[in-house]
Design a protein that fits this description.
Order of helices and strands: HHEHHEHEEEHHEHEHH
Number of domains: 1
Largest sheet: 5 strands, parallel
Strand order of the largest sheet: 1-2-3-7-6
Structural class: alpha/beta
Distance between the termini: 16 Å
CATH topology: Rossmann fold
CATH class: Alpha Beta
Oligomer: single chain
Amino acid sequence: MISAPPREQRLRAAATRIRRHALTMGEVQGQGYIGQALGVADILAVFYARGDGELRLRPEDPGWDGRDRFLLSIGHYAIALYAALAEAGTIPLEELETYGADESRLPMSGMASYTPGMEISGGSLGHGLGVACGMGLALRHRGNPARVFTLLSDGELDEGSTWEAAMACAHHELGNVTAIVDVNGLQADGPTPGVLRTEPVTEKWRAFGWHAVRVDGNDIPALLDGLAELRAHTGGPSVLICDTRIGRGVPFLESREKAHFMPVAEHEWQAARDQLEGAHQ
């Protein structure tokens, strides 16, 4: 059997650690958007893995002006981004134990004023792409070559503000802006197709003037290939549409109902870790 290239192996290992970090935080609070965190871990590993990630960062200096900006539009995915920031080295691993506690820098919804490496405050959905558009314009005006990435959910495609921002990015030909859409097919009110049909997603982004690529968001090589294609496109904004599975890496959570805010019993956290470690071996 042919082994995966070393970078792919390292990124898979980073994704497993991100999942493990998320489970650690979830157990501290006994709750959290753990299903989404497990689902986007591969995406975040590709961006944040130290020495192998897509982002230009200085982990010890998260305010460095030359950094690439990664905007978490979906603020309730903060548990996932904290895990990635710990993997990158911006947040100390031991700080994850404070998740959601009073006076913690790691609140349950992302807040830029609290957390190093958190670029914007999330919560109200549909704002991230508009902020990314403004950042992209400002960076270009200043001659700063940094790129802006924003992670959206498929549920945010219900928001008119997302499509207004998509039009603005295309109108201004913002080649420094990339959207990443987590298509996990689930919203707070139920499966996405039953709330508001958004498909065909890829064709819609293309119609709005974006270079769009759709990949399996839980497949590291596919993510790398997709990002390579986007890097080669410089004439305007790009979007990586990622099909993911909530609870990925922990089989008994992948099939759990009511998965948007997933209930996990006290005795299940260790079982989840055991399944995660078994899958990675």
